[in-house]
């Protein structure tokens, strides 16, 4: 089992972590603790968890972080 940490130690953008704190969210759920680091490291993630456990954030938060770090338009694939 992955230890739960805080969002600020997971590699998410500082601005995003600050907003999460404003919303009262500081500790990730188990699915978030496992999925976020993997997604931030460029790995594909397939997660399974009950409804209401934070799956959407587990996939969305890394995506927001990666897009905010690379705001340019992606190159078309050839």
Description:
This protein is mainly alpha-helical. The chain has one domain (6-68). Helices cover 45% and strands 0% of the residues. It contains three helices and no strands. The protein has helices spanning 14-22, 30-40, 55-69. Helix 2 (30-40) runs parallel beside helix 3 (55-69).
What are the SSEs and their pairings?
Layout: H1 14-22, H2 30-40, H3 55-69
Which key phrases capture this entry?
single chain; 78 residues; mainly alpha; 3 helices; 45% helix; 0% strand
Number of domains: 1
* Structural class designation: mainly alpha
Helical content (DSSP H or I, runs of 4+): 40-55%
The end-to-end span amounts to 41 Å
Number of helices: 3
Percentage beta strand: under 5%
Order of helices and strands: HHH
What is the count of β-strands? Answer: 0
Sheet of most strands: none
Structural shape: globular
In quaternary terms, these chains amount to single chain
Low-confidence stretches: none
Q: Can you give the mean pLDDT?
A: 89
Instruction: Report Rg.
Output: 13 Å
Structure summarized in a few sentences:
The chain is mainly α and 78 residues long.
